[in-house]
Amino acid sequence: MHPEEGVEVTASPAVADDAGRRALVALVGVTLLSLVVRLQSLGARTFHWDEGRVGYWILRYHETGRFSYRPIIHGPFIQHVDALLFHVVPATDFWARVPVAVITAALPLSAWLLRRHLDEVELVSLGLLLTLDPLLLYYSRFMRSDALVGTFAFVAFTLLVRAFDTRRPRLVYPAVVSFAFAFGSKENALVYVLCLLGAGALAYDHQLVRAATREIGAFDRLKTDLTATRSWLDDASGETPSALWLAGVFSGATLAFLAVIVLLYAPRPDIWTALDGPRQFANVVDSATVEAGNRFVEGWVETGHREHPYVAFLHDMLETLLYGSAVVLTLAVVGFVVDGYGGDGRILVAFTSYWGAVSIIGYPIATDIQAPWAAFHVVLPLTVTAAVGVAALVRLVERGVATDDRATVALAALVLTGAAAGIVVANGDYWNSAAEEDRKVLQWAQPENELKPTLAVVDAVVRKNEGRDVLFYAGDDDRFHVANESSLDQPPPGGPSWHSRLPLPWYLERAGATVTSTPAETTATEAMSDAPAVVIAAAEDRDALESRLEGYAVAEHRFKLWGEGIVVFVDRDAIREAGLEPSAL
Q1: pTM (2 decimals)?
Q2: Average pLDDT, whole number, for the chain?
Q3: How many CB atoms lie within 10 A of CB 108?
Q4: Which of 3, 184, 247, 471 lies 20 to 30 angstroms, CA to CA, from 364?
Q5: CA torsion, points 340, 341, 344, 348, in degrees to nearest 10?
Q6: How many DSSP H helices and E strands does the chain contain?
Q7: Cis amide leading into 174 (omega within 30)
């Protein structure tokens, strides 16, 4: 970032010392707010289908100590963290989500690393947007790896910016480690790399165009930048020759990256024997890198997971953005226009704008299902540009007050108030939502929250019951039947019908339930002749079972928010033996 020949490459509104201290204190306060809003009522929402799938295998890993990478449930970071966490705290919805909530809560602090490029108001605005944007907040309270990969990648980016700004190569190492954790969280860290490269190319072209408008040739500008880059390397490396220093930094960063990847992707318990000898060490490294890479290619590249209608996925992405993050999108447009056309044209603002734009284009290609959590990766970089938009409106109010321009003050204040109100209202709608009307931001495989009290009753009954605990009635379509329940001890599960039960296996496994199921040809009369304490079936089978389960309390719930329901029968005597009133269900 350097002025050359009268050309200001980036206008860096570096915060002054006093303002910087105020901004830092404010960001610490915002980070505490971020932590509070992410932890508050974190366990209130019923586990989503995907949370239940990953959570079940975490419980099995926690119990057996056996783990191997499976691309279908994504990177192993959350699996390792939760499996360790459950040695200290109980396996609950709250504690399973805590690692995601705590890590994403630290995002506002990363804004401080951009203080050479953003002023005091922009830094604090960025922290607030990272804290309160409805889409970012909702999926930061969700035990899924999208928020993790986004957070680690964003922090890595801000560390690299700071390393460039300060000529401190040591910051490259935490940046690389953070990016390694991104790769260990979810495979779309590769998409982040592509989006960053694409945004970088567009942002530099943006700078070349700006240079051309000032009658400086693109070739001269390129030569100037190459000279500045060499000067930067010389300054950063000190007395060491730049090429040798660069090779050392690259080698150290590569080793740091590989160390994290091996730590996360190596199978368990094999990793604990890695130091038994050179051959065993090589085998562990190969399993964590080459073998894991091959599994990723086989699981996501060669199997056609990306064969889907692009326009439909793009429409779904845009719909989610408009409903979940309309304020950030609007403010990002304001920030891009104000900075690029009426301001100094900072490269950071251009870069994050292009990063968001490239993500909008790229994620409908990269994602395998229409899922609103993909929009998290679009909103994240746009918060920087949106923060510039907030600051522009604040400055407009200040100038209006100074010049007694009441119309300008009223307009800018109205926009800011409307933006704040929009965020508050949206968060009120989505806070712990599991409601069908919020389908633009939620994914369809979310059970309703009213299921949780029923599951609490089932949990109490199972813990007190002896013998068989739960029977899944498969009905005519064999929906819930698993022929060999012991096949669920280690992944993959024994048949596709197990996935139809999700997220119930998470709740039943942590209660220690003994589970059986009926094959499709079993009639309701046969199945209920020796029914256990709990019977679970599809909602359409309720009438067939209810008359055969006298003495059972019954509850019906939406199992998927649109299109599927389940019914849960619990023996009233078993409820009493568990110390509950039969009316509890």
Answers
A1: 0.92
A2: 88
A3: 28
A4: 184
A5: 0
A6: 24, 7
A7: no
Closest CA to 14 of 124, 117, 123, 127: 117
- Beta bridge partners, 472, equal 517, 536
CA angle 353, 357, 362 (to 5 degrees): 145
How many whole angstroms separate alpha carbon 29 and alpha carbon 32?
5
The C-alpha torsion from 141 through 144 and 145 to 150, rounded to 10°, is: -40
Residue 27, CB half-sphere, CA atoms under 13 Å: how many? 26
Q: What is the pLDDT of residues 274-318, one digit of tens each?
A: 888 889 999 999 999 999 888 888 766 655 555 778 899 999 999
pLDDT tens sequence across 357-374: 999 998 888 887 888 999
- Name the token pair of 7: 């050309």
Q: Phi/psi class of residue 558: alpha, beta or left (left: φ > 0; alpha: ψ in -120 to 50)? A: beta
**Two structure tokens written together for 153:** 């990648």
> Locate tokens 């060491």: which residue?
240
The residue among 142, 118, 137, 114 whose CA lies nearest residue 50 is 142
**What is the 3-class SS of 126-153, one letter each residue?**
HHHHHHHCHHHHHHHCCCCCHHHHHHHH
How many angstroms separate the CA atoms of 12 and 119, rounded? 8
Q: Give dist(CA 228, CA 241) in Å, integer.
A: 16
Instruction: Please identify which residue in the block is written with the tokens 């604090």.
Output: 124
pLDDT for 164? 87
Helix or strand (DSSP H, E) at 54: helix 49-64
Structure tokens given for 494: 């024994």
Length of the chain: 585
Structure-token match 């024997």, residue found: 273
What is 381-417 written as a DSSP string? HHHHHHHHHHHHHHHHHHHHHHTT-HHHHHHHHHHHH
What is the token pair recorded at 314? Answer: 């793009």
Which CA distances in Å does 243 have to 108, 246, 250, 254? 36, 5, 10, 16
Whether 435 and 536 have beta carbons less than 8 Å apart is answered as no
Q: Quick: pLDDT tens for 446-502.
A: 999 999 999 999 999 999 998 889 999 988 888 899 988 888 888 888 778 899 999
Q: Where are the beta strands (DSSP E) in 5-139?
A: 7-8
Distance CA 191, CA 330 (A): 25
Cβ atoms within 10 A of the Cβ of 310, count? Answer: 11
315-332: b (≥16 Cβ within 10 Å) or e: ebbebbbebbbbbbbbbb
Whether residue 434 contacts residue 442, with contact meaning beta carbons closer than 8 Å, is answered with yes
Number of other CB atoms surrounding residue 419 within 10 Å: 21
Question: Residue by residue, what is the 3-state secondary structure of 438-453?
Answer: HCCCCCCCCCCCCHHH
How is residue 155 written in tokens?
């922090």
Whose structure tokens read 């500008």?
A: 221
